[in-house]
Design a protein that fits this description.
About 60% of the residues lie in helices and about 10% in strands. It has 8 helices and 7 strands. A hairpin with a 2-residue loop joins strand 4 and strand 5.
Length: about 375
């Protein structure tokens, strides 16, 4: 910790108190010297004391001595009180500031679990402690996310890299030949790496989407039909029926490309976890000042304990939702980030395993500033 230099807070407070006392004492002395004697003399004359008499002289001397003594005692008591109060307050202030300074230094060194207690010196200092603790919470969450992200990245990359290395060593040792099946396996693993890289880039871009959202007036039906058309071949290849139910004339203020990306990710997720012969529904409807998109499938479903985690990066419910099925565990995180960038929300429900899953995306149908005004209108 850096040692304080120059005037510390305690000395500054004491100096400020001293200046106030000196100013008050001088002012009192001047007023008492210039105003007090004439008034005192006038009252002596009104009481019958002769002018320039010994009685008047001794009375004025007594008044001046009493005034000087009173002012001296008052200033002394005030100075001692100011000293005690200054020492007490400065100690509390120094303790609070030193605690915040030490906590900040600890956080700078990577100890993000440090928190400070409210000093109880007024709302300003309590608010400062609260703001500091919120900052520490945020930094701790960011650091935790960073560590988890690096761990997940390493875990995701490790499998395809290990497979590639094993096949290349086998080819070098002559155990395997560079035939069509081997080339197909190598291409599959490199394809996984390429897809994973694209997914990570999409997630990073989605989490910065607040700065990249380009909204405009769009038709919900047009977006739904465009996304469904793009997914039609994949659904047909797996023999999964995809149907659309969208009300007419539903317009909203959104980024068409980003919203289409959200719905594409949800339809892709539904396709991966719906078996052949299953059905997936994409619906859109208006609810108050919002447009609600629903993607419902009759596939594998999700157990209740996994529902709160499905939008986390790289999260997979169980071994059935594995890398071999094509999912990287990022698509739903991207959908969540893009939805929130629109000022909306995304949720998931499922009766349980084998009972299907429903994803709900709710976004404002007007620009965010207008939507917030409607939210505060009286009922």
């Amino acid at each position: 910790m850096i040692a304080p230099t120059g005037f510390g807070m305690r000395r500054r407070l004491l100096l400020a108190q001293s200046l106030v006392l000196v100013a008050g004492g001088v002012t009192t002395w001047v007023v008492a010297s210039m105003v007090g004697p004439p008034l005192f003399r006038e009252h002596l004359h009104m009481a019958g004391v002769a002018h320039d008499s010994n009685e008047q002289y001794h009375a004025e001397q007594a008044y001046q001595h009493a005034t000087a003594l009173s002012i001296g005692v008052a200033i002394t008591v005030a100075a001692l009180t100011a000293l005690v109060v200054t020492v007490y307050l400065s100690r509390r202030l120094q303790h609070s500031i030193a605690e915040v300074s030490a906590a900040a230094s600890a956080i700078a060194e990577g100890h993000y679990d440090i928190r400070v207690a409210p000093p109880r010196l007024g709302s300003e200092f309590d608010n400062m402690a609260t703001a500091f603790n919120k900052m520490a919470d945020r930094l701790q969450a960011v650091e935790s996310t960073r560590r988890q992200l690096f761990g997940d990245l390493a875990h995701e990359i490790r499998t395809p890299v290990a497979v590639l290395e094993a096949y290349l060593e086998a080819v070098e040792d002559g155990v395997k030949t560079l035939d069509q099946p081997t080339i197909a396996m190598l291409r599959e693993q490199t394809g996984r790496l390429v897809r994973f890289s694209a997914d990570v880039a999409a997630l990073a871009q989605a989490e910065e989407a607040h700065a990249t959202i380009n909204p405009g007036w769009i038709e919900a039906g047009d977006v739904a039909r465009t996304v469904s058309a793009a997914m039609a071949d994949r659904y047909a290849a797996k023999n999964v029926a995809l149907s659309i139910v969208v009300g007419k004339g539903i317009r909203l203020w959104a980024d068409r490309q980003r919203l289409a990306q959200v719905l594409s990710n949800l339809l892709d997720n539904a396709l991966r976890h719906t078996t052949a012969g299953g059905q997936v529904l994409l619906a859109a409807e208006r609810a108050d000042n919002r447009v609600v998109f629903t993607v419902r499938d009759d596939g594998e479903g999700i157990a209740a304990e996994h529902l709160p985690h499905v939008f986390e990066r790289f999260y997979r419910v169980d071994s059935a939702r594995n890398r071999g099925r094509g999912g990287s565990g990022i698509g739903l995180a991207v959908a969540k980030a893009l939805t929130e960038a629109h000022g909306g929300s995304i949720a998931v429900t499922s009766p349980g395993q084998g009972a299907g899953t429903t994803f709900t995306v709710s976004v404002p149908d007007q620009p965010l500033t207008v939507a917030r005004l409607h939210q505060h209108e009286p009922a």
